[in-house]
């Protein structure tokens, strides 16, 4: 079972601006036209929570939620509506200001889902294309790590630029006591082709992913892997978890998302995995079907969940 059961959370996209330029950004082509959820939608979520206490937590997200001018009042309103946990999903750069962390903590943000792109300042800043981003993010996580009630979760997008960095990335965060979960999201391009040449071969990623996941577990972290062939993960197959909390987002997002064309696999019919997303359109266009690498899982179904 997931450490943070996805059904316990609702995720609301409220801000589509961002001040990093991550090369792997999955919504960079849509940020200019996707609309954040309206104040009315947010109010409706709070009203539902007040009435039925339906969720444990709310995730405030978008491209970069810390740019939202009303973030603090929104957090306060969520707490007043009865959400036990308020999570922000962030690149972490603004957490470098202790006073900003203090405002978030005081308002009630207890869960911080931080995108870590590389293992050090050189790689993280190169991938996010903003100098100083890593140092600010790390300063923020170090600051938050002092508070017992805080939970840190990291997310790393696995691309050609990052897969070999994963073990060092895990090691370089080993000192964080409140880091409870590390997620590794194998990149999907939101189009039919790998226009940015970021998709790595799964066989190249595998040893680094296994090493990183194993070390994170040794450090006591929960691990979630997304969008990787489940049959390749061996004893770590149970870490594949493509489930997400219910997401309130501009419907136009899904037109773009569906261009990924997940669930492509020569063995889909005979494979019993219901969790695996197979390969996507851009992957097979680039590397083919990996017919000698992936192998259908027979018998036991590992986890019965999928995207959306
Ligand atoms: S055989 Fe295909 S569908 Fe089955 S786990 Fe492997 S990649 Fe996924």
In short:
With 308 residues, the protein is an alpha/beta fold. The chain contains nine helices and eight strands.
Indicate the CATH class: Alpha Beta
Briefly note the structural class of the backbone.
Answer: alpha/beta
| Tally of alpha and pi helices | 9
What fraction strand?
Answer: 15-25%
Mean pLDDT: 95
Proportion of helical residues: 25-40%
Second rung of CATH, namely the architecture? Alpha-Beta Barrel
Q: What shape does the CA trace take?
A: globular
What is the CATH H-level superfamily?
A: Aldolase class I
- Unreliable spans: 302-308
> How many domains comprise the coordinates?
1
Question: Remind me, CATH topology?
Answer: TIM Barrel
**Heteromolecules bound:** iron/sulfur cluster
Q: Kindly report the oligomeric state of this protein.
A: single chain
What is the element string, with H for helices and E for strands? EHEHEHEHHEHEHEEHH
Characterize the biggest β-sheet. 8 strands, parallel
Number of strands: 8
- CA-based gyration radius: 19 Å
In whole angstroms, how far apart are the ends?
18 Å
Could you give the order of strands across the largest sheet?
7-6-5-4-3-2-1-8
């Amino acid at each position: 079972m997931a450490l943070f059961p996805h059904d316990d959370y609702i995720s609301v996209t409220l801000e589509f601006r961002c001040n990093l330029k991550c090369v792997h950004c999955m919504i960079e082509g849509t940020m200019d036209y996707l609309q954040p959820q309206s104040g009315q939608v947010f109010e409706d979520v709070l009203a539902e929570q007040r009435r039925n206490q339906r969720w444990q937590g709310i995730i405030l997200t978008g491209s970069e939620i810390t740019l939202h001018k009303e973030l603090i009042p929104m957090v306060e309103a969520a707490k007043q509506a009865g959400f036990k946990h308020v999570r922000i999903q962030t690149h972490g750069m603004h957490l470098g200001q202790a006073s900003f962390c203090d405002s978030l903590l005081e308002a009630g943000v207890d869960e911080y889902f931080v995108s870590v792109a590389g293992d050090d300042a050189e790689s993280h800043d190169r991938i996010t294309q903003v100098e100083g981003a890593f140092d600010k993010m790390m300063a923020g996580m170090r600051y938050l790590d002092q508070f017992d009630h805080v939970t840190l979760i990291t997310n790393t997008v696995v691309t050609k630029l990052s897969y070999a960095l994963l073990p060092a990335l895990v090691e370089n965060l080993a000192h964080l006591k409140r880091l409870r979960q590390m997620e590794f999201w194998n990149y999907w391009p939101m189009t039919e082709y790998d226009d940015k040449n970021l998709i790595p071969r799964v066989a190249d990623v595998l040893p680094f992913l296994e090493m990183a996941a194993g070390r994170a577990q040794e450090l006591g972290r929960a691990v979630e892997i997304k969008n990787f062939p489940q049959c390749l993960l061996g004893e770590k197959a149970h870490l594949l978890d493509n489930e997400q909390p219910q997401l309130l987002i501009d419907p136009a997002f899904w037109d773009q998302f569906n261009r990924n064309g997940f669930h492509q696999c020569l063995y889909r019919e005979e494979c019993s995995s219901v969790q695996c997303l197979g390969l996507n359109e851009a992957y097979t266009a680039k590397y083919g079907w990996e017919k000698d690498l992936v192998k259908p899982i027979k018998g036991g179904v590992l986890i019965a969940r999928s995207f959306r």
